[in-house]
Amino acid sequence: MSRPDANEAYTLGTSPAEVARLRARLERLRPYATALLDRACLRAGQRAIDVGCGPAGILDLLSAAVSPGGRVTGLDADPVHAALAREYAAELGLENVEVLTGDARHTGLPSGSFDLVHARSLLINVPGPAEVVTEMVRLAAPGGWVIGLEPDCEFGVCYPPLAEWDRLHELYVAGFRVADADPLIGRRLTELYRDAGLEETGIGSYALASPPGDPQRTVIPDLVRNLRPRILAAGLSDERELDTLDRAVRAHLEDPRTVMTPHLYMAAWGHKP
Predict the structure, then answer these.
(1) How far is it, in rounded angstroms, from Cα 75 to Cα 101?
(2) Pairing of the two strands 114-120 and 47-51
(3) CB atoms < 10 A from the CB of 260, how many?
(4) How far apart are alpha carbons 207 and 22 in whole angstroms?
(5) Domain chopping of the chain, boundaries
(6) pLDDT surpassing 60 at residue 47
(7) pLDDT of 164-208, one tens digit each?
(8) How far is CA 47 from CA 93, 96, 171, 178, 271, in A?
(9) Which of 224, 225, 211 is CA-nearest to residue 253?
(10) Which of 37, 89, 119, 161 has its CA 20 to 30 A from that of 81?
(11) What is the rounded distance in angstroms from the CA atom of residue 149 to the CA atom of residue 237?
(12) Which residues contact 74 (CB under 8 A, 6 or more apart)?
């Protein structure tokens, strides 16, 4: 069997609502992205790439960090997201940013091109994540840094407890595995970095509660909807159960008293010798 396409399996598409969700997540995760950049000591005049940047990524943060004199590249496999990222950079006047359309496994860019290589919520969407990490390390210049932020989906908090949430979360994790991806990729980041030749690796974790109105509050049922064809094809559930779970979980999340933390985020870094 051929490996499933990552975009087909996991992304929520390129609708205006999804683009808004991704950009809202950018704001929620900005402090952690800034902390990672500070750790890597990115400086004016250097070169950086945001691999799998989506419609915005952290292009603005990278642009500010390398200015004046530095250059930033955004890369995304989805032509629509790449075009939106170009629009985003133009809207903010980020003249030192270019955005390319390309495969994160085989970018075609020269080795050692960047002082910093960054990816966020990319490896969880890519079968064979070690291939992407190997390419990221190849792109890093000697003495450069590779940094990333990825979800770890085993632990989510839904309180008060709801049996339908437990079952939906079980199907969410199983759906990733059916699609040949690792929903626990966050905890493996430093292992992947070390295996690819990085040194001075480290990792930290963040749990972000999603209040009412936050697009991330319904990310688990949203992703299960996206994974529905694979869940059904694998015989993990049926249409009736999925519809019942979806209604129950969304109703529970509409209650402002419900506490929701969809998953952990793991931030990791490594130095290329």
Answers:
(1) 6
(2) parallel
(3) 23
(4) 18
(5) 6-271
(6) yes
(7) 999 999 999 999 888 788 999 999 999 999 999 999 999 999 998
(8) 18, 10, 41, 37, 15
(9) 211
(10) 37
(11) 31
(12) 49, 50, 53, 57, 59, 82, 85, 89, 97, 98, 99, 100
Give the DSSP H/E element, type plus range, for residue 266: strand 264-271
The radius of gyration of the chain from alpha carbons, rounded to an integer in Å, stands at 19
Query: For residue 13, is pLDDT > 90?
Result: no
Q: What is the pLDDT of residue 18?
A: 60
Closest CA to 25 of 198, 215, 232: 215
Distance CA 136, CA 117 (A): 6
Per 3-state DSSP, the chain is made up of helix, strand and coil in percentages (nearest 5) of 45, 20, 30
Q: Which fold has domain 6-271?
A: Rossmann fold (3.40.50)
- ∠ Cα 83 91 208 (to 5°): 80
* Owner of token pair 């779970």: 245
Distance CA 208, CA 265 (A): 8
Q: State the average pLDDT over residues 114-138.
A: 95
Q: Locate 70 and state its tokens.
A: 């530095």
Give me the sign of the Cα torsion angle 227, 233, 234, 240.
positive
Q: Which residue has the higher pLDDT, 76 or 7?
A: 76
DSSP 3-state of 259 = strand
